[in-house]
Amino acid sequence: MSLLRGLSVLILFLSALLLDAQATPSSFVGSNVCRTCHPDIWATFYKNPHYKSIASGKETPERTGCEGCHGPGKAHVDAHGGKATIVAFSELQPKQVLDNCLRCHAETLSRANIRRSAHTLNDVVCSNCHSIHKSPVPKFLLAQRQTDLCYGCHTDVRGQFSMPFKHRVNEGFMTCTDCHNPHGAFAPTWRMASRPRMMDQALANEEPCLKCHSEKRGPFVYEHEPVRVEGCETCHYPHGSANSRLLRRPVVFTMCLECHNGAGNFGRQNGGILTLTPSHNLADPRYQNCTTCHVRVHGSNADPLFLR
Amino acid sequence: MKPAQRILIAAAILLPAALAQPTVAPTSEPVGSTRGDNWSDYNIVDSFETGYRFRTFGGSFDQYRSTVNYGDGIRLLSSFFTMNSKDGHGRFFDEIVLTTQGLGNDPYQNATLRVSKNGLYRYDMHWRLNDYFNPGLVTDGAAGQHLLDTEYTTQDHDLTIFPESNLKFFLGYSRGNQNGPAISTIQLFDNRGNEFPLFENVRRVRNEYRVGNEFRVFGVRVNWMRGWEDFKEDSSYLSGQNAGNNPANPTTLTSLQRNEPIHGTSPYWRAALFADRKYFSANGRFTYVAGNRGFVLDETALGIARFGAAADRQIITSGVAQRPALTGNLTLSFFPTSKITVVNHTAVYNIRIDGNSVYAQFDNATQSLQYLQFEFLGIRTVANETDVNVQASSKLGFFGGFHYSDRQIRSIEQSNVQGTIFNAPSEQSNQLKSGVFGVRLRPVKPLSIIVSGEIGRASRPLTPISERNYHALDARVRYKLKKMQFAASAQENYNVNSVSLSSYASHARTYSGDASWSPKDWFSLDGSYSKIHLNTAGGIAYFASGQFFTGQQSIYVSNLHVASLTAHFDVRKRADVFVGYSHTQDTGDGRSLIANPFTDSSNAFYAAQTYPLRFLSPMARLSVRINQKLRWNVGYQYYGYNADFYNNLDYHAHTGYTSLLWSF
Fold this sequence. Notes:
The complex is a heterodimer of chains A (about 300) and B (about 675). Chain A is mainly alpha-helical and about 300 residues long. Among the domains of chain A are: about 30-90, no CATH class; about 220-300, no CATH class. Chain A is built from 13 helices and four strands. Chain A has a two-stranded antiparallel ribbon. A two-stranded antiparallel ribbon of chain A has the order 2-4. The radius of gyration of chain A is 28 Å and the shape is elongated. Chain A starts with a helix and ends in an 8-residue tail after the last strand. Among the domains of chain B are: about 1-35 and about 465-664, no CATH class; about 75-135, no CATH class. Chain B is built from three helices and 30 strands. Chain B has helices spanning about 5-20, 60-65, 605; strands spanning about 35-40, 40-60, 75-85, 95-105, 110-115, 120-135, 145-160, 170-190, 195-215, 220-235, 235-240, 250-260, 260-275, 280-305, 310-335, 340-365, 365-370, 375-390, 395-415, 420-440, 445-460, 470-480, 485-500, 505-520, 525-545, 545-570, 575-585, 615-625, 630-645, 650-664. Chain B is globular. Chain B starts with a helix and ends with a strand.
């Protein structure tokens, strides 16, 4: 008896699914109907990347034009409008917005980690950065110019790019997405765990700095281990700095000595990182500019002390 | 289009550009507005902003070039062109987008192009130029000896065939060029010798070729790419007769020549799988990069050594280095209910740096030929992270996660003990465990509050400044209405390591706020402020005047205040006015003089503990509509740089431009 009851429930469930699938197409009215009441949006929609779904004529109704995102419009038309009768993104919870967009945009490499990205965890979803109908930029339907968009939340980063020494983001030479993937990133291959987050890696698994600074990629006969193990941020601020060459300290010897202090538990076999030899008299200004002699601090092919 | 509409659109064009643009030119262009001219089945929008930049300055020109670098001359400040087919069925293309900025002679130039035909192809190009000048490490007041005056250009081309289908093909090409003069240093002829300037003609080229494909099989999307990155450096070096940096040292250089070509390639594979279902999604990625570099260093130096004897030395080094790196990632997402997302991410990374090299050195009549062991370095990291994201209600959400990673570093270095050279292998493992937790609140619709934190412990990091014991806290508040927006954040990153010899602690606190107000179409106001505080204390050990000092600390304190304020308004819809001010100031640790009251060996460290400075930049721009298609613009921006302790780098500069913007 219980088996019969179970089968009945299953049949009912499958029937409901089937009915739902059959009922769905009749709920769609087509984008031409939408334009009647929304001519302002329709007037420029041919410039929108989503217009391709209409132009192709091959997509199913639930993936075409206005109803591709806003859902079937029949009830909305019958009710003469209203946000309750259609998928209105302004009324959706952040996760619903994300789910809606990922129906079509999930299976891409750049969004593979969007569910665990810092943006998603902080309720920053697609519609926070993208403006589908009123984008003022020519690509990616961004709601603002990319730097303005990112600065809107990351005010501290705006401050860093206002420093005297900085990567040229404000000047238009670079963009935030040259180094970051706002849709989330794979675990970085330098440093550990997820720190730093949201990095867009070079050649699929390298620190993004190497996209432009290829000469630092090596491999070198003598690698400066922290560069390879911990990354460029060990010595440099990536966004901007008050110090020349984006260094973390205004003078170089203080930065070098903070690691080269022989402290146990660090370096190779916990023997401490090499300290200076007695010939380096720190009271003499000559020895305070380490890179005057150790010119190849990123790695050398000829000298284990990076002298050439 | 009616003139009134055009005016409104023009105002809308200028508004976003005015809000946060730090440089006075050019004016950015919008898309999507109902403007442009129709031709056949296409809509065309076009604009050009051409004008003249001017600049006057006083003080350190080197520092100005290093931080700002705008010059005089005629420029195509910006241009914008779009052509869109109105029915999506253009014969050869459906969309062309071309933008340029700074062409002519600006230090920062870029151009982008997109050409696409729906369903058939999409081509994207991005070209950029950076005129880079860096006078070197001069912030300590000494003359910088490492100067770089290079031009870096980069270009990326990507072509996608059948971009909207389940079977796509990718072709790509990227190129980077760096050329220009540089000055470096070289230390000769022994470890206590002298340092000499070394002139370099930098020539670096990077080429990357990509080919790939994406298809769908058994409900899984597969994406693969094969790429080759070639790198070539053929910089040449030269140095003439020179007494060296230290006149007290008798070592002198008569001539030096060096050639150091480096050629290499990094071929790589990338494969990825995606599957997205109602209750789960799975993504996998595999990459393999097989990098190698061949190198030669041929150096001949002639001069007089430390004890007055003639010195001639030739060094020849050559070899081939290999650097295979493998990565595997698997991301599994589960959606048991509509309110819960569980994501597990596993990452494996393995890199080995190995190769062979030969080193030969010839000094005067003596010859020595030495084979040097290539120093092996291997890094293997395995990470696993699980994050849970719960949307409990429309007003409350929270997330938490546990991240674990294990890193093993292996190296083989050459050691020399009393003349005997041997290989010393070593191995070190480090485990990092960290936890993250956050709460999201949305008590009313326009207001969102997010508080999150992370705490981590590493068992054996590589360097004393690595994160061993750290915690980070982050709080953000955002209030957004249609005409007003307010955002504030507070972040705290503490790294508190403790070691036997010394301790390292880094306390970074950042507080920032941003407010925007646009009460009318013709008026808007935007202001932001950040305080970035950093204080670090690191244990140091060093020699001074023959004595070995331990137990001291290198302290660095920075208190940066960065503020900006911009205002924009229209004057009777005919003129657009924009004014702004940006102020960056490091107040340091509070002292007003660099003078050290102490006379012990910590003098050098005391002087470097803080570096107070001011960098300010007021700006203004006026744009006047002459007729429906033409605007006249004029802009001015002042830059002032002033370091409190070392004023030899101070400068002030007046920059500006006047231009005509023609658009239809």
